[in-house]
Design brief:
Four copies of one chain form a homotetramer. Chain A is 63% helix and 0% strand. The longest helix of chain A is centred in the last third of the chain and has 28 residues, at 139-166. Chain A is mostly helical and 215 residues long. The radius of gyration of chain A is 19 Å and the shape is elongated. Chain A has helices at residues 35-52, 59-66, 70-76, 80-95, 105-121, 123-137, 139-166, 176-192, 201-210. In chain A, helix 4 (80-95) packs parallel to helix 7 and helix 6 crosses helix 7. Chain A folds into two domains: 35-77, Homeodomain-like (Arc Repressor Mutant, subunit A, Orthogonal Bundle), CATH 1.10.10; 81-210, Tetracycline Repressor, domain 2 (Orthogonal Bundle), CATH 1.10.357. Chains in contact: A-B, C-D. At the A-B interface, helix 6, helix 7, helix 8 and helix 9 of A face helix 6, helix 7, helix 8 and helix 9 of B. The structure holds a DNA duplex (31 and 31 nucleotides). Chains A, B, C, D: Keywords: DNA-binding, Transcription, Transcription regulation. Chains A, B, C, D: Residues 15-28 have a biased composition (Low complexity). Chains A, B, C, D: Pfam families: TetR_C_11 (PF16859), TetR_N (PF00440). Chains A, B, C, D: Residues 1-34 are annotated as: Disordered.
DNA sequence: GCTTAATCGAGACGGTACGTCCCGTCTTAGT
DNA sequence: ACTAAGACGGGACGTACCGTCTCGATTAAGC
């Protein structure tokens, strides 16, 4: 089973309101969900992660910071991981869309460069790394993370590569998924190990893995 | 700052008794450290991680399982991460030494294949992934993990590559550290995302990244 | 300050609709109070108390059981204690009226026997005991319980005794309030401690405390 | 089933350390129970009850006030009721022992006067009333309260009365338990309803219920 | 053989966070 | 206007571990 995937998303509206569970079955009466509270929670979680790390990211701390009751969090999110997923999905859809349209070797290179920048420079990159990490510790996180983030992006990336191959822009020697792993893996690994991502890494990977070998 | 590194270690004895803290000076009298307790703790930690995941890996659970008092653990290890590091170092020194001697393209390929097997098939591979993960959540873990595991292996791997280049066996287009990241990163990333490692991934990576490009 | 009192009430209509809060003036327009909802709440409270005890008597449980919104309860009753008071007043007016008319030693004895039965056999007896109990825990309950239940009954009981003394039927040696306490106290105490009320207790109390001592 | 009882206890040592559960099975090693913490909890509970009422008596408040961790309370007491029982038993053994030795009508009268004072003037009296109340709300409390407090005192009181009857000091017309209920009930009832206990109540009860009727 | 000191098991301790329940207030839609 | 529905900020519940501590019992080197 192949269920990972890392980047992209059609720039169009995908999920303006990323409710963790599908839809809350539209209540016929009663108060509706408080959008301000929802945003306060997302931002509080994001801020706490960036400022104090995943260790300080407790439900109580999020509630405190967001000025929200604990129960309000438990009402809408089954775990802090889903909160982070909500922010990650919103942010990476916004700031790191998988290129649509006619692909070129250049647009793929740009996308990977953007991904490298996202990982090392964007607060949402920290969220991505934290989720990759937490997925190692907890099967529930792994499942959710794959379903809601990795798989959808991987689908778009695979499609991107296929179209580029069709257009004769690239000719990878590995199958599409393995190719993506070979391109994205080094970037993620560098980020995970705290090392920076060398400037020529993306270029060389694209050159060596995607470009036709002369002979 | 470059502080990652993933595999190897001279097969020779490096640390038969991996005391996390330096050495307990010289015990002028009284009982010495109980080796049975030490091993019980290491095995309990390993078993718990493999059987129930990192979430169930609490000091109390380790003590319970090892039949040891909590204080006995705190006396010798500053955190559960150091326990895992002890087991990881022992195991990967034993089962995944960085090849010494005259390197060939073939021996590098074998080492990477062994690494892939280690990640996906060996219990110690789970420990490695758990530590990579925990390093994202806690700076102390990151520091220790790099100092005691990643850095030493990376030094040996860098040396291995340099000798292979000198021998004309390989001609990578990236600098040594980036080359290792590009080779190891995809394997780790596949393991982290729960996907298997495709059979031809190592071969193709070696071929595309280390072999001279014809022209 | 003397504010207790335990039984009776003129059999005539005293409060068909015991609105805890005064009365909602005159409803100038819109729906009037839903009598069905009011009764549903009273019965739900009563049932829950009898079936699962005071501990399970939460506003949310009452609302759930009555099929009524929480707010509907809060609109009409300031607390669950007032709900119980409403049921208690209705029930004890109905099933345990303080005898009116010309009193005899016999009618007083009957009233006390009825009270004993009320305490041990009637669901409303459980309500009375629960309110006595809750009055120990909460001053607001104590105040309301005395004002709305104990004081009015005590007034009637005191009057009953006075008329009986005037008629030469009894000649207690204590002042009226103390006499009532001496008669009612043992019954309540037996009920509170879970012991049954011995069959001859009422008779002997009446004989020893109300009848003239021979000498 | 008769299980109530209210006052007394041989003046001799009965339970210097009223551990809720019998004995903690003498731990062969490890820290022993912290007596200071035990006392801090008992006093905090007592103080909170007297100062702010049973409603404010939460485990968290007790822990806060006693400067103790919540878990330390849960380790030794199954509920706040048992804490109150511990204080009540210690206090009433100390300040309201059931008279031993040769009983006279006078010593019984004194004991009842002491009981009246205990109920209305002693902080421990508030504890007793609170426990009587809580026993109405919770069967577990009722059970514990009867087993640990009411039953033992009732046994001593019954014995006291029996000895007094044998000595020809009194000649009650009710059986021993009912006699005690008839004497103690009015006092407790007055205390429960917040009324004071009239000065001549005890005297008249003793005179009318225990003294031989002339004729 | 006796002293001395470090280790061991056990586990109590002050804490923090967990996830749940209910409080009493409020807002929304429907009748 | 009143209802059912239910979200909201709050706070206590009882549990699990945290890392520190104290207690005897055991063990082995040095006297």
């Amino acid at each position: 089973m192949r269920l990972d995937n890392v980047v992209g998303s059609l720039p169009g509206k995908v999920s303006r309101m990323p409710e963790s569970s599908s839809q809350p079955s539209r209540p016929r009466s009663g108060s509706r969900r408080d959008e301000a509270a929802r945003l306060a929670v997302l931002h509080a979680a994001d801020d706490l992660l960036v400022e104090h790390g995943f260790g300080a990211l407790t439900i109580e701390a999020i509630a405190r910071r967001a000025g929200v009751a604990k129960q309000t969090i438990y009402r809408w999110w089954p775990s802090k991981v889903e909160i982070l997923l909500d922010t990650l999905i919103e942010d990476s859809d916004k700031r790191l869309p998988v290129p649509a349209g006619k692909p070129t070797a250049e647009s793929i290179r740009d996308y990977l460069r953007g991904f490298a920048r996202f990982l090392t420079g964007d607060p949402a990159g920290k969220v991505l790394l934290a989720l990759i990490a937490q997925a190692q510790h907890d099967p529930g996180t792994a499942e959710s993370f794959h379903q809601r983030y990795l798989r959808p992006r991987r689908d778009q990336e695979r499609d991107l590569l296929a179209r580029a191959v069709d257009a004769g822009e690239i000719s990878p020697r590995l199958d599409p998924d393995a190719t993506i792993d070979a391109l994205v893996g080094p970037l993620v690994y560098c980020a995970l190990t705290g090392a920076g991502i060398p400037g020529d890494l993306v270029d060389t990977l694209v050159e060596d893995l995607l470009m036709p070998r002369p002979r």
